[in-house]
Amino acid sequence: MMDAERNIWVFGDYRNYFQNRVTLQLLSRAADLAPKINARVGAVILGSHINEYVNEYIAHGAQKVYLIDHPSLARYSIETYTTLIEGLARKYLPDIVLVGATSFGRELAPRLAKRLDTGLTADCIRLDINADGLLEQTAPSFGGNLLARIVTPVSRPQMATVRPGSFQEIPHDSSRQGMVICEPMPKKLPKERMRLINYERKPPRGQRIEEARVVVCGGRGMGSKNKFRKLYELAQLLGGEVGATRPVVYSGWADPEALVGQAGKQIKPQVLFSFGISGAIQHTAGFNNAGLVIAVNKNPNATMMKIADVAIVADANQFCSSLIKELKKRIRN
Amino acid sequence: MINLVVCIKQVPMVSELPWDAHTGTLKRELAEGMMNPACGHALEAALQIKEKHGAHITAVTMGPPMAEEVLREAIALGADRGILLTDPRMAGADTFVTSYILARAIEKICPNFDLIFCGCQTSDSETAQVGPQLSEELDIPGAANVEKLDLTGRSLRIQRLSDNFLETLEFDLPGLITLTTQHYEPRHVSLSGMQQAFEFGEIVTLTAADLGLDPEFKSAKNSPTRILDVFSPVAQNKNIVMKGAPKKIVEQLFLKFDDKIGGAIGKDLKEKT
Ligand SMILES: Cc1cc2nc3c(=O)[nH]c(=O)nc-3n(C[C@H](O)[C@H](O)[C@H](O)COP(=O)(O)OP(=O)(O)OC[C@H]3O[C@@H](n4cnc5c(N)ncnc54)[C@H](O)[C@@H]3O)c2cc1C
Ligand SMILES: Nc1ncnc2c1ncn2[C@@H]1O[C@H](COP(=O)(O)O)[C@@H](O)[C@H]1O
Description:
The complex is a heterodimer of chains A (333) and B (273).
Chain A: E1 6-11, H1 22-33, E2 39-47, H2 51-59, E3 64-69, H3 78-92, E4 96-100, H4 103-115, E5 120-124, E6 126-129, E7 135-141, E8 146-151, E9 158-162, E10 179-182, E11 195-201, E12 214-218, H5 225-228, H6 230-237, E13 241-244, H7 246-250, E14 271-275, H8 281-284, E15 292-297, H9 303-307, E16 310-313, H10 316-332
Parallel strand pairs in A: 1-2, 1-4, 2-3, 3-10, 4-9, 5-9, 12-13, 12-14, 14-15, 15-16
Antiparallel strand pairs in A: 6-7, 7-8
Helix pairs in contact in A: 3-4, 6-10
Chain B: E1 2-7, E2 10-12, E3 19-20, E4 25-26, E5 33-35, H1 37-53, E6 55-62, H2 68-77, E7 81-85, H3 95-109, E8 115-119, H4 130-138, E9 142-152, E10 155-162, E11 165-172, E12 175-179, H5 191-200, E13 203-206, H6 219-222, E14 226-231, E15 240-243, H7 246-265
Parallel strand pairs in B: 1-6, 1-8, 6-7, 7-13, 8-12, 9-12
Antiparallel strand pairs in B: 2-5, 3-4, 9-10, 10-11
The structure holds flavin-adenine dinucleotide and adenosine monophosphate.
């Protein structure tokens, strides 16, 4: 009973709904890609009393929602979810299955791919349809130092997990229409071998500056405590952390934990922004293993400008504002 | 006594990656190898079970012949033997095929296994897929991203952070877990231990034929995924100076580095048309 048309499926990962928008982001990307292969966008959702999510997914671009609603599905369970989605995929033969790269998604997708005898690309940051009509998946490796473009030429479905934040959701529109396909809970299901003993909400662990992929460092050249605050906005946009030089910490513009250098933290970000920092050795000793170093200083002869990969001659504040503006634009798109 | 299997991958040492400046690709064959960090934590967790309950530990790796080094290291740390899966036919495996080969090897060499340990992910391919796929291959319960474990009889209780939830799960052996790098800090190898491991350590080498794989089997061909290309978003040209109006510089910056910055923050920063 294969659907007449092709389908791109998105796994409806609704746990943690308000923090985790990746399902909505995937619905949006699927909607962009679907016309290129003449496909429809479907969301697959399992759970108990999940009608609100059905409506939500339709309002965010799902043209179909495949649904199994059953009291025993009230909590995520890895084996049962795998078996149920495997069953749906065998019945409806989707062309592409996208799963958000949440902890659960990254455990579910590899199992599903194994059961369906197909390929899976992990933690993609870009998805396209190439000239051959294949899903072209771009995934980072070596901590983002390399990007690989990967396809699954023959096996179906083509599967990818996708890093949250890679795409922008379509705004909620409750006038959108979608088809709801209710599937019954199978009578006989293998017993879940993984027993859930306890389950409690935990605030996410704070990221440590030592491990941050992006660090925005600021020095005395930022001018004032107030202006220094802008760096926090930039760091947040970049999912990174703020670092500081000693005078900045002494002036109370930043916490002592933010100090980078000989007397502070050793950092190794893939991208380091340095704003208004002269580049004293006691400071630069803190990031010997940084990747791309971008320095902003009004003095082109500052040491920091000589050791940077990109030396931007500008006022640190103005440049920071322009960068924030452009990033917001690009991330929204 | 229980049988533990630890799957260990040798990965290139990232700080010493030899880059091809022309193509921006990694000359992998020249890279110095090391034990994947998360695999080190997986091994440590297994060693602690061995110390507490008594256990036999088999370390398994698939890779080029030089991957034997990580097995020697594992033996020096306390593993009882090493299994090296090496064969030109095994090269170019994606996670689907890696987990297939590891499963066949474990069935062959250690059919009575009780618990399999993997790292949560590797530092090179970063897929975190081999563990869950291996538990599917062997049809055993499996839990990813384990931070703490506690074995009582044949029941294993684990704790992990999954999205924003702290979960405690339990299952009966045999099973599989993948370890994060949060706890179980690996112990240090002593030089004498390393020497001992090189002289006396038991290493069994198996080829595709030894595993009874289909004569037509080739990882590169049997892998469902294909890598089209690998490229480095890192710009190789150093010390580019940019000046002018901030707005213009920002544009210039993205033109050159949107891939690199996007890669680091996990967002597509390309200007959309
Ligand atoms: C024992 C010892 C240990 C130390 N340990 C550390 C340490 O761990 N970490 C650390 O950071 N420091 C440390 N220091 C201090 C260090 O030597 C430097 O004094 C400090 O790093 C300088 O900080 P800065 O670059 O913010 O300030 P400055 O050196 O004053 O530089 C400010 C820079 O901002 C630029 N600038 C000014 N206005 C603007 C503008 N509008 N736009 C753009 N650029 C502008 C200037 O051209 C200048 O280059 C240590 C010192 C000692 C003696
Ligand atoms: N070639 C290999 N040999 C042995 N174990 C492996 C191999 N590849 C992956 N693994 C195991 O699977 C885990 C996750 O790897 P990955 O899915 O590549 O991120 C690793 O930490 C290892 O425990």
